[in-house]
């Protein structure tokens, strides 16, 4: 008996070979890593004890080197935790909490090459992130990645729903979102949002995309998705020297769609501000010489319809000043717009105005009126031409008081013109060799950082259109204030088809999970090129709150604002663009979204509710208001006749507290409501 007890004590004292595990601070989400007999590694996750991500492979296919996915062994591990709060210089909330647990697994091949990397797993209450970190090593100096083998095997995919747009198609990210079963998704871009059969909400995306190819999701059947890297025309999808770390692969998790929208996970996975003092980066509500071009009443090209003339710019500066706007965007002011500029771009000159645009006089008038000029650099996707003039273009803008620049990359996907490594130029001064790359490829990732740093050197902020996806780099480079990256308001001007009434409610739980979007709301005329815009007037007001951007355009024509109800312009003039706190209160993709935000350095709250195709009742608690404080509520809502007449706008006022609720009906066909809560002192 004593012998048996001694053997039992010895067995209990031996170390237990268990799967490495890390869990979220609230204990609900657990992530572990396991291996098989061939030395393959798999990651898996559960939530509340139920499978969330089934065992999913890890690894890489490399060019000119053996695959890195077998004969792998975990040689060590390190656990850590963090609970910190950091300040955003601008943003949807002033303070961001980062609470997570982290596990780093040191992994090495057992084969003769003995290549090494770390697998970093970080788990927060609102999601999971993993990345690969490669140290400097003799057998893996230059890493040439053909494919990444990271997979996401969604447990509960059958019977679940997904909202997604296709990847590697000609029109970049500018597609209407599809709502399908998770098992019916095709090659998709990220973020891709899902609701599992068990009711858990997920969104797969990436964070800190630097010097790497963007990740798409390749379906492999049954709810399995593989990280599909955006290809390169010049070789492997990614070519990078060690040491380096991949972007984070992120699974945002929530019990509801609003829980996803309230997450700061993507931002927290990015490095802190590297620019230092960024007090010169200022949120702005702006007008533009822009919508008229999309209506085809004015043009970017010179001639009788040219919009960017001296006279028009001076008039628009006066209008912006009269309405308390801090900026004016002017498109088509520089040489290069005449002729065939689409997907060409060689003729663009970024420091040379057209003959009918007096930059010096316009800049002086803008300064006098306290209206900042927002510059525009359309490149037609010609990175080679733009980068050759980048320094001169930014210096020219700084010289003329421009502090923000909207960049554009209008070219079909796969059509970015990138200077190849072949030295020299042809007789026209153009690079002798070009490669043609995707907007989400590694060359594009490198280019956008180059633009950010050139702009920062001249104290200029960047608003990218036709951009690479948002992965939270605004934390690292706070002058990257906004971008497009989805179908914007201009599609409603063009029609054939328009965005549809459910588009904005879908964006709130898909594209906007990545970061700010310059959607250009405020089209009070509700009129495009001969067709109606699928929205009510109240919804156009609500979009200033539901679609976050520190740059918000007052996008319609001045004459249309003059015809609109005065109450609509009262709202547009007053609504802030920089926030102390933001809370998405209700909604689901395509149906509706309700968001409340508190003004930064203020006590008043604002609320927006944007609906979809069907009328929807909204009833939300006002518990976000300060307890014990009385507020004057001003409500701009769909009028009782808004289903038939989208211009019908009702305005109400009353006194409320945090104990009250707000109930409102959003009209069919894209209804909306907007509210302001002012403390009564």
CATH architecture assignment name of the largest domain: Distorted Sandwich
Relative helix content: 10-25%
Q: Determine and state the CATH class of the largest domain.
A: Mainly Beta
Distance between the termini: 81 Å
How large is the share of residues in beta strands? 25-35%
Structural class: alpha+beta
**Mean pLDDT value:** 95
Query: pLDDT below 50 for ≥5 consecutive residues: which ranges?
Result: 1-17
Task: Write down the domain tally.
Answer: 3
What's the assembly state of these chains?
single chain
Task: Give the topology.
Elements: H1 2-13, E1 21-23, E2 29-35, E3 41-47, E4 50-57, E5 60-62, E6 72-87, E7 95-109, E8 116-124, E9 127-134, E10 142-148, E11 151-154, E12 161-164, E13 178-181, E14 192-195, E15 201-207, E16 215-221, E17 224-229, E18 238-241, E19 244-245, E20 248-254, H2 257-261, H3 265-268, E21 284-289, H4 291-294, H5 310-322, E22 327-330, H6 359-369, E23 372-378, H7 383-399, E24 404-408, E25 416-419, E26 434-437, H8 442-456, E27 461-465, E28 480-483, H9 490-494, H10 503-507, H11 537-546, E29 551-553, H12 558-563, H13 566-574, E30 579-588, E31 592-599, E32 605-611, E33 616-621, E34 631-638, E35 649-656, E36 661-666, E37 672-679
Parallel strand pairs: 21-22, 21-29, 22-23, 23-24, 24-27, 27-28
Antiparallel strand pairs: 1-2, 2-3, 3-4, 4-11, 5-10, 6-7, 7-8, 8-9, 9-19, 9-20, 10-18, 11-17, 12-13, 12-14, 14-15, 15-20, 16-17, 25-26, 30-31, 31-32, 32-37, 33-36, 34-35, 34-37
Helix pairs in contact: 5-6, 7-8
């Amino acid at each position: 008996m004593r012998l048996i007890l001694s053997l039992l004590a010895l067995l209990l004292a031996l170390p237990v070979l268990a799967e490495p595990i890390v869990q979220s601070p609230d204990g609900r989400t657990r992530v572990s890593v396991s291996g098989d007999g061939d030395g393959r590694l798999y990651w898996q996750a559960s939530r509340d004890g139920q499978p969330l991500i089934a065992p999913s492979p890890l690894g890489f296919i490399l060019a000119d080197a053996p695959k890195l996915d077998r004969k792998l062994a975990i040689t060590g591990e390190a656990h850590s935790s963090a609970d910190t709060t950091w300040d955003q210089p601008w943003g949807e909330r002033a303070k961001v909490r980062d609470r997570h647990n982290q596990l780093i697994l040191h992994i090495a091949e057992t084969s003769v090459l003995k290549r090494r990397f770390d697998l970093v797993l970080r788990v927060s209450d609102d999601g999971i992130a993993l990345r690969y970190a490669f140290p400097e090593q003799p057998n893996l100096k230059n890493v040439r990645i053909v494919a990444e083998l990271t997979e996401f095997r969604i447990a509960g995919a059958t019977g679940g729903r997904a909202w997604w747009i296709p990847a590697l198609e000609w029109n970049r990210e500018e597609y209407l979102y599809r709502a399908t079963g998770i098992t019916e998704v095709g090659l998709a871009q990220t973020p891709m949002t899902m609701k599992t059969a068990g009711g858990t909400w997920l969104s797969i995306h990436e964070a800190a995309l630097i010097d790497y190819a963007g990740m798409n999701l390749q379906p492999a059947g049954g709810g399995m998705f593989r990280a599909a890297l955006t290809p390169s025309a010049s070789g492997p999808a990614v070519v990078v020297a060690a040491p380096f770390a991949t972007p984070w692969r992120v699974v945002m998790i929530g019990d509801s769609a609003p829980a996803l929208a309230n997450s700061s996970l993507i931002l927290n996975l990015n490095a802190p501000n590297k620019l230092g003092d960024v007090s010169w980066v200022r949120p702005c509500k702006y007008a533009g010489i822009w919508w008229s071009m999309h209506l085809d009443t004015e043009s970017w090209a010179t001639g009788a319809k040219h919009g960017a003339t001296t006279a028009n710019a001076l008039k628009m500066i006066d209008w912006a000043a009269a309405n308390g706007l801090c900026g004016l965007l002017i498109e088509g002011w520089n040489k290069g717009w005449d002729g065939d500029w689409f997907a060409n771009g060689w003729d663009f000159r970024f420091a040379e105005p057209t003959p009918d645009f007096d930059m010096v006089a316009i800049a002086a008038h803008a300064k006098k009126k306290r209206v900042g000029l927002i510059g525009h650099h359309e490149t037609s996707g010609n990175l080679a031409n733009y980068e050759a003039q980048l320094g001169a273009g930014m210096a020219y803008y700084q010289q003329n008081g421009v502090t923000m620049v909207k960049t554009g990359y209008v070219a079909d996907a796969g059509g970015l013109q990138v200077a190849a490594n072949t030295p020299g130029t042809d007789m026209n001064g153009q690079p002798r060799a070009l490669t043609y790359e995707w907007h989400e490829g590694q060359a594009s990732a490198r280019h956008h950082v180059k633009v950010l740093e050139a702009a920062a050197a001249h104290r200029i902020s960047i608003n990218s259109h036709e951009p690479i996806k948002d992965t939270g780099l605004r934390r690292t480079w706070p002058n990257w204030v906004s971008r497009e990256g989805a179908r914007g308001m201009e599609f409603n001007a063009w029609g054939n088809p328009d965005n549809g009434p459910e588009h904005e409610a879908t964006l709130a739980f898909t594209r906007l999970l990545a970061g700010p979007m310059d959607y250009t709301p405020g089209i009070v005329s509700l009129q495009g090129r001969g067709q109606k815009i699928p929205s009510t007037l109240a919804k156009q007001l609500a979009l200033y709150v539901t679609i976050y951007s520190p740059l918000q355009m007052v996008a319609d024509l001045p004459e249309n604002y003059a015809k609109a109800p005065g109450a609509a312009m009262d709202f547009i003039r007053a609504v802030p663009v920089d926030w102390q706190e933001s809370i998405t209160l209700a909604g689901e993709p395509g149906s509706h979204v309700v968001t409340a935000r508190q003004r930064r350095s203020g006590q008043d709250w604002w609320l927006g509710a944007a609906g979809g195709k069907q009328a929807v009742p909204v009833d939300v608690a006002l518990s976000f208001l300060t307890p014990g404080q009385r507020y004057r509520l001003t409500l701009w809502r769909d009028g009782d006749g808004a289903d038939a007449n989208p211009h019908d706008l009702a305005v109400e006022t009353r006194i409320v507290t945090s104990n009250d609720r707000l109930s409102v009906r959003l009209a069919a066909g894209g209804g909306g409501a907007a509210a302001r809560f002012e403390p009564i002192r």
